[in-house]
Design brief:
The protein is α+β, with helices and mostly antiparallel strands and about 750 residues long. It is about 15% helix and about 30% strand.
Amino acid sequence: HKMSTKTEATKNDVAITPPVCRRDEEKVCFAGVGPAHWDAKMPRQSNDSSEKLLDPPVAIPDPYGWLRDDKRENKEILDYLRAENEYSKSMTTHLKGLQDSLYEEFLSSLQETDYTTPRSREGFWYYTRTFQGESYTAYCRAPKISDTFSINWDGTKESPIMPGEEIYLNVNELAKGKSYCSVGSVKPSPSHKCIAYAVDFSGDEKYEMHVRNLETGEDVALKEAGGDDLLEIDGLLWGKDDDILYYMTMDEFHRPYRLYQRKDWNSDAPKDTLLKEELDDLFWCGSYKSLDGKYIFFEAASKETSEVWFLSTEDETSVTEMQCIALRRNKVLYEVEHGDDNWYVLTNVDGSPNMKLMKSPAKADSAADWELVEDANGTPLFDGSLAKSLDSVTVLNTHVVIEGREGGIPRVWVFSKDEKNMKMLSFDEAAYDVGTLAQFEADTKSIAVSYDSLVTPPSSIEISLDDDSQRTVLKTKAVPGYNKGDYGCDRMEVLSRDGETKIPISVVYSNETMEKVKAGERVPVHLYGYGSYGACMEADFDSTRLPLIKRGMIYVIAHIRGGGEMGRQWYEEPNGGKYLCKKNTFNDFVDVAKFLVDTWTTPEMLSCEGRSAGGLLIGASINQAPELFKCAILGVPFVDVAVTMTDSTIPLTSGEWVEWGNPNEEKYHQYMMEYSPMNNVQKGKTYPACWLTGGLNDPRVAYWEPAKFTATLRHANPDNENPICMKLDLSAGHFSASDRYKYLRELAYDYSFLLDQLKLAN
């Protein structure tokens, strides 16, 4: 019964058949109360859940469950994954020329030697650079001589961007001899004489913590206190000065849960103090420092409830007990920033559909003192209503900069503390993406935003806080060979099957293609979606779409429920895309696909794509309507929803119960079984060609999910006329290749498969 491969001779070539993954028909996963063999220490539901567990437990067939190997060492499994890679390679050998062409097209739209907009930080301008032929970023800084800068750069890799440029961390050097290298946080110390940085060399998101002395070049990998093992961290911060570091660690299930303070980190006997620990595995934790540097915060949050603790940096050498801003209350979310001795609080307290903006004196147990922030007329800036949503605030000395959404579009507002008026920044295009650039100083007269749209490459714009008509373009991203006038974009709405909900879609195309549509011709369309966690898919610019668009495709982004594009109500129950209304996400996507087939394309010319939870979207959509699509790309797809969500031994599972529901509970079990892609593959149907990807070291969506779904799709329809292929990166994690050139090679692979299936390879 072990996997096998075989070939069959045809007239002119060899037709390759896929690996056959053995099935264990007796293998099941149990939903409900723990079965007889279950480790009682592993929860079957959250601590505060009052829902009834299935009792007796219900068996879910899991014939490919043997593919799970937490250690990633089982020879049979690794041999099978390699056989899948070989099959996918064989199925695309004829596309090598197209892959090379796509790769060259990606590169031709990329200014390989480039830099990011410099940002002011206490006497320096900080920015990053990339160099032609080098795969990774270089972190740079230059002395700040004045409050403004102008770039006089000749475009070469040898020339500095600014006078006195210093490359203080070159990731290309860290990556030498490594198959994977991803740098997380990079934090200059308060004196700017050192940096602390985190680096992951495997893709499993376990980061080493290093400190580099920028005066001597000495680079130290920090070790666990009193031992020789390297620290594995999730986040890092500096204290008030260079002697104290803060770092987060993860539990055995890859959940950040502890905040430590390390004093005298560079001595032979550093002292670690555990400041906070969160043992409830529903809560994901993080730490951050206020912009004014006065507080260290520890935030514990589930998808529905949060709690924030603080420590004053003035007291950090003598006080190690953090204080709580407001004790957690079920289904109350809040986030905190600090400024002018106040907490600025973003919260849905009292059940508002969106977040309110409130403030109170900066003290412990402050919930009773929270009051809405109002303008000079006494009108709340953000009252939590449906009109507009609130995402973040940056508290400056004279103004508060606010980011959120209105009308489905990201917005930036500026609130003057003195005049108590708020103004939204406006831009010329109807639909766009905008957000503030990193802000490191509270004492400033201007902010910088990044602006782009589906047809406008990103630019960074400096805007006066007192007069937003005073704008200076600091940098526009160069896209060689791109002519904006050749392309067009639209924002449209599609009516969902409920007859009431209007689903926004963003559309980008070449003008030549749209002329064909206007003449009545059907054209190929690529449909992209995500629709989970309240995350927003923006109408942004992406040069890697251009090879598809230039080949005559229309590219469509579906802003389906489950995302946050229309505010939190687009995500939350009763009408969003979560819990017992999750099917809205998939229904919306299929409804958009039907609209596209009715207006611009045909099923033979329609492809779709999603990654991670977006892979769940694609899996559920092709199960619901396989006849609508010719090709589907499922990147690191979360497709074994029911089995994964029953099993808290799989990293991150229990924290996801407040996103999807818990199939161990009667309330959610049947509903989830009705959409979980692995459990709903239809027999006797023609499925689209599928291209699935995964990463062996992925801690978020385990490699066995795409592997099991690949085998399930083939088993259900062994004579499917369209190929089912999986490509698994044996040296990467959830976020694909860390090497920017390797990433583009992988993308060229994906798109070559898609174009071939749509008969656009030539």
